[in-house]
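Entry 12.
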Amino acid sequence: MTIPPAALALVALVTATLSAWGNGPRLDAFVRDITVFDARSGEWRTHQDILIEGTRVQAIRPHMTEAPDAKYVVEGSGKFAIPGLFEHLPAGAVLTEEGGSLLARGVTSIWAGGWGRTEAERWQRGLDRGEYYGPRLIGVEQPAPGTRRGDANVLATLIRLIQVEGRTSGAALREVTLGEAERAGRAADLGSIDTGKIADLLVLSGSPAMDIRNVAGIDAVIFRGEVLTQAHVNLLRQGRLKPGDGQLRRGQR
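Predicted 3D structure (tokens):
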């Protein structure tokens, strides 16, 4: 039986595509079949794949059965992805000791209230050198008299926004993620899960849309493209994960 030229051409195209897929660059991380929070619209997108290369999100696409080669694969079925959280810390916070705990709670970016330039530069330099774990410093601000937002209690902020100010869960999440990035002038690379942005995101076991307290149910933290599994997160909470034990990159802000 003679195979029509058009059919041969189609077979060749499919073969070439699959070959290119298999020989493509290995991803640093791949989050499979997860529900993603869109911080821009406040909506949730179901059955999404997140592809991460280096420190950045390479692509977000509808879930596909065929998975690319990746260093880390995070199974996201039944789970929820939100951007890394932002927090304001009070003056005097000892970040060399508290930084790992902050990261374990999903705080990937911080404002440090009342810090001087020298203190801020010392913190960022130590983080870049891998001397300790902790979130990036995005700004130094002097809090208004009588105000105190700190101690990494971003969950309390979310609850207040919903219960006291009447915000929806989506609007509250936007406030502590993309809203903070916008105020810091970092919305181009932080604050939402978008192609080309720094890959800071949390994998949650429960839906914040159903109960905002599910933000505390962290299954994994992805910070600057590196995956901190549940085991890593537990060690960070206990202060037992030291530089060199994990895989966090240095020098990425």
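Annotation: The chain has seven helices and eleven strands. The CA atoms of residues 39 and 213 lie 18 Å apart.
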